[in-house]
């Protein structure tokens, strides 16, 4: 909110009998340089305790500080939370979601799975080889 809007709002809230104050007295400053002087003015030192002395200071235990800052293991709570809901989506749906989240670049695409070739076996049996041997070589 700007200062002008704030001033107008305060003028509306004033009792109707009071007039508008002159612009110099409205701000409550002595001159144009008073704003900078107010910022530069140092606060008077408070009559509190002197921070340079040790009197009244509570010594913190290093062990207590270590235990305060020690990391907490949330594994058990997280496992309970994860195992609480056992809803498993269909494989087709999960594949769709994964495909949508992948980029279009080739580096983002998963490697295509090559179909495994079955080891080629022979069509002929031992009996066929013996029969061929007899016919070709003439062995009875």
Arithmetic mean pLDDT: 77
* Global structural class: mainly alpha
Order of H and E elements: HHHHHHH
Q: What's the number of domains?
A: 1
How many strand segments?
Answer: 0
Largest sheet: none
Keywords: Nucleus
Region (Disordered): 1-56, 98-125
Protein name: Active regulator of SIRT1
Biased composition (Basic and acidic residues): 106-120
Short note summarizing the structure:
With 140 residues, the protein is mainly α. The chain is built from seven helices and no strands.
Topology overview:
Elements: H1 3-13, H2 23-27, H3 34-40, H4 62-69, H5 75-84, H6 91-101, H7 126-137
Structure description:
It contains 7 helices and no strands. It has 140 residues and is mainly α. The protein has one domain. The radius of gyration is 45 Å and the shape is elongated. InterPro entries: AROS (IPR023262). This is Active regulator of SIRT1. Pfam families: AROS. Belongs to the AROS family.
């Amino acid at each position: 909110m700007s200062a002008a809007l704030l001033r107008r709002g305060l003028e509306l809230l004033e009792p109707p009998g009071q007039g508008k104050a002159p612009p110099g007295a409205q701000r409550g400053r002595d001159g144009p340089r008073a704003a900078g002087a107010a910022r530069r003015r140092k606060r008077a030192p408070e009559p509190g305790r002197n921070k340079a002395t040790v009197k009244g200071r509570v010594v913190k235990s290093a062990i207590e500080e270590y235990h305060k800052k020690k990391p907490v293991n949330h594994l058990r709570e997280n496992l309970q939370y994860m195992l609480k809901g056992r809803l498993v989506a269909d494989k087709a749906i999960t594949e769709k979601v994964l495909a949508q989240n992948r980029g279009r670049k080739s580096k983002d695409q998963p490697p295509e799975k090559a179909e495994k070739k079955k080891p080629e076996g022979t069509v002929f049996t031992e009996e066929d080889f013996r029969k061929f041997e007899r016919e070709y070589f003439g062995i009875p």
